[in-house]
Amino acid sequence: MRCKLAVALALAVSAAGAHADSDSFNDIFTNGHVDGELRLYNFNRIYDTPTTPDAHALSLAALINAQTGAFLGGFSIGASFVTANALGTKDDNPAKIDTSLMGPNSSVGAWSQAYLQYKRDWFLFRGGYQYLNTPWMGGNDSRVIPSSYNAALVDITPVKDWNIYAIRTFSWKSRTSNGMYDDNLYYPSKYNGDSMYGNNGALPLTAPEANGTWAAGTTYVQGGLKAEAWYYDFLRFARMGYVNGSYTFDTGTPFNPFIAVQGLTENNSSSDAENILVQTQAKLVGVAGDRVKAQAWGADVGTSIYDGRIDFSYNKLEGESGAVGNGALISPYTVNYATDPLFTTSMIRGLVEIGPGHAWKARAQYNFFDKKLQLVAAYAKYTSLERGDSHDLYFDIIYNMDSVLKGLQLRDRWERSVGGIANLNPGNEPFTYNRLMISYKF
To answer: What pTM value is reported for the model?
Structure first.
């Protein structure tokens, strides 16, 4: 039933604000547009331990988006279809497949967006299957197919560069799923038939279904200032308050320093007994708890340098004795994806996955050849209560090949994680992850 509610809300709210005399139905097609992206990704997980076989995955994907022109005073309809295929490269041994790319199957296809939208002046409403772009509930777009949500969204813009959001999600589609499901990344693969992989999976198959999320937030940009504040109620999982702000000092030189800070607090979304993580005694970073409680903060300082940038960041996630994961940060739509907004999160993982502790990170990037080539290097150090000490070394090469074919990009991401205990890396041995990604936007 919940999977139909967002579309029903869209119809009801949009119909109330329609102005039938303002646009012609001809505009539906004449002002519509279609775009998309082709992606060829080749992922390799290389383990130093002899007890875990290396894993590989290759996938060719197509993401097709379409939206009509406005009609009846501001209505439009949008849809996105996504499909991916392993091109016959899937290994017969499931242990040798990097299932985080597109699951264990040879192909996957789904409608990731199918929404009705009403937009007029400072007001936007969208209901149905859609992509979201919020700090703790977004597209997780580091694989061939992004995540999407069955949701109702309101976006109000009182003045330029100030947005106020209200969101209610009912279900979601993970990066490897073929439809919308009432779960999240704490649920096991194949929960209720969901082909969800690359997830945390701490909950049992018998866990109650997830009830979605209420969220509200605001973002503001003015000159060098960027600020945002968000509230999330991950129903029966956690309530989260999150703030993030940065300021860049324009010096009129190639060096423009900046500073950023962030803070977060979490507690139970419902009574202790009704919280699904508590109710099922799910172990996060190996520890079950009788409540949810987490507090984190961070800072990032750096500067631009001609066509580059360097920065140094720090995050602290407090330990909370007796809480789930001894104070683990509950993030139902980013955990194990490493797509959260904490400053020190690396390509493989961050404090959301490692648990309470602290981390620091140094990062440098520079653009060459009129910004066609970007090189990135980073080093992160993690000290955690439950998973010991570890560090990650990261390199990223991005080459925009618009001169060859507009929209074509070649990217290679490489990271090596060393250290940790309690099987942070398989066999507690180093782990190298290489992601080669070719994309073409049209």
So the answer is: 0.93
